[in-house]
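Q: I have two molecules that I believe assemble together. Could you output structure tokens for the complex as a whole instead of separate predictions?
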Amino acid sequence: MATIRIPPVLRPSVGGEREVSADGSNVGEVLRALVEQYPDTSSQLFGADGDLNRFVNVYLNDEDVRVLDGLDTTVGGTDELVILPAMAGGR
Amino acid sequence: MSVPPLQNKPCGGRYGDIVEAIGNTPLIELKRLSPKPGVRIWAKMESFNPTGSVKDRVAKALIEDAEAKGAIGPHTTILEPTSGNTGIALAMICSRKGYKLKVVMPDNVTQERTQLLKMYGAEIVYSPGNLGSNGAVAMAEEMAAANPEYYMPYQYGNPANPLAHYNGTAVEILDELDGQVDAFVAGLGTGGTLMGHARRFKEELGDRVTIVAAEPMQGEPVQGLRSLDDGYIPPIIDLSLLDRKIFVTNRDAVVWTRKLLDEEGLFVGVSSGAIARIAVRIASEMDEGNVVFIVCDDGWKYLSSGVYTLPVDEVANLDSTVWW
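A: Yes, here they are, computed for all two components at once.
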């Protein structure tokens, strides 16, 4: 079961938890399992087309899954998914 | 290849004024950080630019682009959201060229940045620190929309930003390494550094080169968004040009900033520590080749934060400071 780290902006939708666990063999399955547990996260994580909301970054451990295989990226039982909002950087 | 050749190597060139002296920075090998003999790690020292950061190249390109388009004149006020380095670079160039400058900056950046901006004559407008750079961008956009006397170069969306690297920094690196670049690591902020280098390197080298983005894992106090729809993606970023995108915590960034100082004698800013960490990781996954990473700025602007002198856990506001 993978661990999912929840950013502050999403915590109200998961009962205030900082971390939750969910099953799945790839990123899409794990996030769908999260949505089943906490339906309020659905509209924030996914767009109407079923893809990740463009302002949501999901990392497998520390690597952005969009640059890996997206929602099809394989997830192991000891992996951690980190959800972060897209923030402007740069100076 | 538009970079003029140096006239008096190895002195770094002869220039008519400080603005012309931007660029042609050294490339330094970091032998102690290399995890294996066949892999060489190179630091492109953008900290050697006149105001101490890579943003000198960007600011010069933004202003020259505006001049070429006829978008600015003696009565224009240039307005830009920035958390420091772009503002400082713009301030130096604007002071040389006689333009007024106003920068919008989060109120939780280090005090040296404020001092440098004022020293170069810029006016500062503060945005809420808990909204990070997103807040500065939003505030600057509102100000620009409300006042036609403002010209906003907008580093996040202006093609002149990546072109400064496509036509400058990337060409210098290819020249210094005779085109032998196997991995390139830079910080992901506006996206300008990564996009400009990625386009040049992919054009010249194809898939032999791996393009890696190191990005800050914004501390929770900086993630002050009301909803995910308040998120922001700089328009110049094209993720398809990246092969890897890896986040670095502020803590790791500080640890590696110290490591660069202790092991290689490089006194650089916190984002460069983060980028070095990823460069070493990429190097450890290779058997041979050249890994180049960008040193974005020098360490002077961070002295007051204690990152070079205090134990990491005693650095104040580690998670709530915008380090890059």
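A: One point stands out. The two ends of chain A are 39 Å apart (CA to CA).
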